[in-house]
Amino acid sequence: MAKKESVSKQSPARQADYVMKEVAQVGTRRKDNLEVRGSSIGALNAYGRHWQDAASWLHEVHRGGSAPKGFPSALHRIDAAAAMQYLLEKAASVRQSQLDQARQALEVMISHFSGEKVSLERIRSEVGQKGDLASGSRYYTKEQVEMIASAQNERNAVATRVSAEAGLRAHELGNIRRLEEAERAGDMSRRQFSEWRFVGADHRTERYAVTGKGGITIEVRLSPQTAHLLEMFRREHPVEIRDRGISYWSRYDIGSGRAWSQSFGDASRRVLRWSRGAHGLRHSYAQDRMVEIQGRGATWHDALHAVSNELAHLSPETTKTYLR
Asked: CA 123, 125, 126, 129: dihedral to nearest 10 degrees?
């Protein structure tokens, strides 16, 4: 195994192997090892799978030079903030038991390398929650979205309409800003984007930016009508908000994060008698945009790459799960 300083250049599998050997403290007595005491070999192996997945996520974040300055490049350097970003992304695709195990694996790893006991906030999975539809499409029609928004207070209703129109995650609603603000700060991603990005979204002319997974900042677009609603909630000065262990500068006093997600689910159950979760709005966005882009002459694969860019997915493979 390479020395610690060069681990960031290793494959995700080798980085996970390095963490496994360090955390398990190979060669020490099991009863003296605080991290693994009471843990079965099976549990450690399960942790290893989560560590490798987290290392693969880091690799994707950094691919193409798109990671923000200071973002960890090696698995053993992940801190609590980066871990929460990873878990928020996983929450959209795995059930609660898997998400909890991933959180536990990261807690063990971060605690070992930091030398301090670390506890990460428990994230709620977006998959198969009680009272939600656990299987099938997570698609919401535009009429259903408007019914849900009409059953929310003004702050959350605006957030719902913005999320639906731009395909935003719950935590991205908390940091949305005008595009020129992100450009002046030098925060925009340097990734190479598909030439089909935003094709077919001609009615969405207002340009904003959000910082999403891995701290990557991308452009999003809204219609003039939705942008007008958003601007009605513009703060005089940005304020710092904290949600699920991650801090953001908020420029608009609209719903976001866990509180907005809860509001959305409650409103959906009131008016529709069911909920597919707030993350279902991203599924709806992905499916609608695939139709719009292909309607302009793009191939299915070209459309997939464009939608992946618009949703700030690190891989089109992730976007495929939104098309069911």
From this structure: -120
